[in-house]
Amino acid sequence: MPIRDYPFVGIHAGGGFTIHGKNPSPRLWIRVENPQTGISTDTTAIVDTGASTCLFPLACATMLGYDMSSGPTVSIGTAGGNGVGHAFVTRVSILGILPDGQASKGKVLRVIGNIQVVYAKDCNEFLLGQDSFLNKFILVINYPEKKFSLRLPELYTTGAPKAKRSRHGVH
Amino acid sequence: MGTARQRKDPRPDYQGQYIALSSSGEGRVIASGRKYGPVFDAARKQGETIPTVVFVPKDDTTYFY
After folding, report:
1. Cα-atom radius of gyration of chain B, to the nearest Å?
2. Which residues on B lie below 8 Å from A127 (Cβ)?
3. What is the pLDDT of residues A110-138, one digit of tens each?
4. What range defines the domain where residue A94 resides?
5. How far apart are CA A41 and CA B50, in angstroms?
6. For a tag site, which of A17, A25, A58, A69 has the least CB within 10 Å?
7. pLDDT averaged over every residue in chain B
8. Would you say A166 and A27 are in contact if contact means Cβ atoms under 8 Å apart?
9. What are the structural domain ranges in chain B?
10. How many domains does chain A have?
11. Is A31:A15 a contact under the CB 8 Å cutoff?
12. Tell me, what's the pLDDT at A169?
């Protein structure tokens, strides 16, 4: 299912959410799961076109049951400096969003699948970057209207011939 | 003449913290803290099988990722 007109989400100091409210940003509600332990969590993740990979907080990896001694270490460079992260295969799914900005926990819009995620100590937020996430999609961000869409390349049908229709349906 | 006592703002302020939300509809905050792990654990102990844990950014801070 394409992610169409997903609204920007603002997170308030009091813990509430708003769509198109104060300081909204392009965030997706996602489900993050360790496929080996089955432990999972839901959270908001920033769609970050400037990030070369998906970067999640290191403490999340611990809670999901990843073995820190087994994940390969990766050098990372952020605006805050350089560091080291641990890469683990992680199952990521995109969740729906409710009118009040909260996750629709029962509505999985798309399973991204098992992808490589780097977990880093100095990372507070969940960032969805290019490798293993954005490189799968055509991303359209509508900043004036504070919404964005993610489509798979094969659904990008501009210029494709229209199907012929008959009385009996589509050929 | 007594001194005026400043009233505390009753609204919670979770800026710069992680919060865990209840999955029972209204999205009530059921745990909070500066560290991800204890917030995740607290949500699991309260029966959340898939805890929803979110970082609340600070309002007066510009973030570069």
Report:
1. 16
2. 65
3. 999 999 999 998 889 999 999 999 999 99
4. 3-170
5. 5
6. A69
7. 84
8. no
9. 18-55
10. 1
11. no
12. 36
